Amino acid sequence: MDLEIPELPFPLRPHGPDGGWTYGDGVLTGTAGPRQDRFVPPTGEELEPASDAPRLLGAPDGDFQLIARVTVGFNGAFDAGVLYVHVGDRAWAKLCLEYSPAVPTVCTVVTRGHSDDCNSFTVDGSSVWLRVSRTGRAFAFHASLDGERWIFVRLFTLGDEKETGAALVGFLAQAPTGEGCVVTYDHLEFRPSAPADLRDGG
User: Fold this and answer.
1) pLDDT on residue 182
2) S-S: 173 plus which of 135, 152, 183, 190, CB 3.0-4.6 Å?
């Protein structure tokens, strides 16, 4: 069933395991179950059972910015709240606030066949603002401690302009090693344009 969120100009649809997604009073909430993750190890071994985690995704048009303050009820290593981009089964990316492995950290995963994994900076507390943007065929990840000054994290693509233009974007909750966690997203905002300068903090 589609979920309509007034801050977003497109509906969201659940994918993967049930995340119990709810929305009310400006807050989106999702729950990861035990040992749910979305990761394709670059070392080549496959995760068993198949790697997946609750996702809530929609299809924006053109260039955009999707912004949310993400708060994670950390219970175990690598629990995370995520802004997620999906182009194909092995072409997707995550911008995460993750307990990695013993301190909240902004980290990213870009999957092109197999996943990479990159930590950016640690966070004092269980909340941070995250932003995913599309600019042409590229995507940009930013994070912020206050929702005003943005830290450039990553710029990448997942295919040609036709493929990236049809991308699904939205939210993911994960708990790879533990018994589950609850993630909330508030201060939701959608802007129908890319940032003017990816590296100027705006």
Assistant:
1) 98
2) 183
CA distance 183 to 20: 11
Give domain status of residue 105, yes or no.
yes
Number of domains in the chain: 1
Q: What is the CATH number of the domain that holds 153?
A: 2.60.120.200
The rounded average pLDDT for each run of 10 residues, N- to C-terminus, in the chain (202 residues) is: 94 97 98 96 70 95 98 97 96 97 96 95 97 97 97 96 94 96 98 94 86
Domain assignment present for 129: yes
Residue 95 domain-assigned (yes or no): yes
pLDDT of residue 139: 98
Q: Which domain holds residue 116?
A: 13-191
Task: Tell me the C-alpha distance between 174 and 183, whole Å.
Answer: 9
